[in-house]
Amino acid sequence: MSVEFxxxxxxxxxxxxxxxxxxxxxxxxxxxxxxxxxxxxLLESVRGGHLPSLDxxxxxxxxxxxxxxxxxxxxxxxxxxxAIDLRSHFPNRNLIWFTHPRSFCGDPxxxxxxxxxxxxxxxxxxxxxRHGRAYIRAEWPLAFRTHCPRHLSPLIDxxxxxxxxxxxxxxxGRFCCQRCRATLQPTHTLLHSPGLSAVIRLQEIIHGGFxxxxxxxxxxxxxxxxxxxxxxxxxxxxxxxxxxQPGLVLADLLVPDEFRxxxxxxxxFQSPQFSALPWFARFLVLAALNQVLLAFPATPGHPPELVVxxxxxxxxFFRCLPFEQKAGILKRSETWPAWLRMGFxxxxxxxxxxxxxxxxxxxxxxxxGPGPRGSPPVKYTKFTF
Length: 385
What we know:
single chain; 2 domains; mainly alpha; elongated
């Protein structure tokens, strides 16, 4: 007969303080490491059989009972924990704005749903040199953030060896996977180029919209940051929309050649929900988004070849859609800026004349009246603004 003794102290002996630009999981991982506990063991010690189990990601809107218990356990004010909650970092944004794995196999004690833990190795090295510790910044798990804007390096969202999401662990002068101890490095790499810089610049502009800043007028004209975000994520919904043709989404057609790989978003991923895609797939979607915004800007000035190429690819996409889906996208575009709306309508209504192998524009009137009776509604991912 064996007897198991379990002792949980009232307060932790080691309690690192959270950083102002950190988020809850990153801080708790550092607390667990300082006390030689696993992440799951720390959470089970906090819960103590009294708090309800977490059935959702703990980094967004953590319940008050958990915040109070953590504050006592770690000897800090509850307001400090509330300040690093993603809901405080990014008010009025729900979890769909943050990247998360489609399936997660955590250790015992961990929540069944967790966000990904993107990490920049170069920033981590600088953090260790400056603060003596490395942590994950709150802006890195944003779904549209695929690269570090400072180092132009990919944010590692999972171990390239075992494929699991992991906290970065420092060992033998390197960052490694907490599970298999393999060196953390990106699963795919992209050469530095003007195209790469342009997509990262777009990510910075989207992040500025989160912070309430107005985007550059050349993108969508004089719109607020919130309106810019709404149009951007409308476009992302369209870019990841699967057609009746197997394995095809619009982003696969529009992604620039320099970023093409032996896979595509529509064929590789069963359900291409943007926030659940790995970093390289989200990057391809954003690269396609950049092409659309460059082709239909508020202030013309880009080569006409780009406009023609994007219009033709959009036309190919629309020809793969049933009538009701095409009409639903065009209906949605009615709230977009005029030049962007006109670009989509023109691409949708171009009819290819086969004998002459040229494109002629003919208005089909798909949005002049209601669609066919009984057409199913077009479903999109919902974002909060």
